[in-house]
Fold this sequence. Notes:
Rossmann fold, four-stranded antiparallel β-sheet, 7 helices, binds adenosine-5'-triphosphate
Amino acid sequence: MIPATPRLSARGLAKQFGPTVALAGVDVDLADGESLAVMGPSGSGKSTLLHCLAGILPADAGTVALDGQEVGRLSDRERSLLRRRRYGFVFQFGQLLSELPAIENVALPSMLLGTPRREATELAGRWLVSLGLAGMEWRRPGELSGGQAQRVAVARALITGPAVVFADEPTGALDQATGHEVMRILTETTRAAGASLVLVTHDAQVADWCDRRIEVRDGLVRSAEGAR
Ligand SMILES: Nc1ncnc2c1ncn2[C@@H]1O[C@H](COP(=O)(O)OP(=O)(O)OP(=O)(O)O)[C@@H](O)[C@H]1O
């Protein structure tokens, strides 16, 4: 049988910041619909790996391919379009625009892809209801709890139907119980939407929500194990 092309595939990723080696040659494969936790101590290169995989940061060496297509060969414009169309992002905090209500924060990525405002707003409203935020649609981020704001961020990441969701410490600013609730919603909805997930965390219990985990140390993948 011919093995399926990985959804996302990185080979030999290397990145240096001045004298600091952040990535020293990393290979990663992410299957269609798979969730992968990237673990490791502070400063080991986890966020740099996520940024290189997502095409936010150019690697010094190595390749990243989405569905077999090398992202490094694209122009800056094509790469930013690809990020908008095919990727969703959830960060620790700060990704929501503070002056816009939740529903408009969620609708925005869809509108940026050309969906008319009314349609995008209706779709955003459905996402918010399905993530348990009925009645909170018109609250601004400052009027939401940390866990509610992260659920808005999950809706915002998924509204465009991405192939891959990248999440960098999405529970880092939450207490344990709220963090687990956000992880349940993030993994369930990502899976239901048919997207793959790359999650950076230093918390083993958070990583347990993913299908598989890798451990980054000193810019290298040191070990890989199934989380289940
Ligand atoms: N923009 C930058 N300029 C200079 N050095 C950087 C930059 N970004 C990352 N680094 C360095 O690269 C190394 C890897 O950083 P990275 O943020 O990827 O680690 P991390 O594992 O995500 O850490 P943490 O868990 O603390 O967020 C660190 O030594 C960091 O100081």
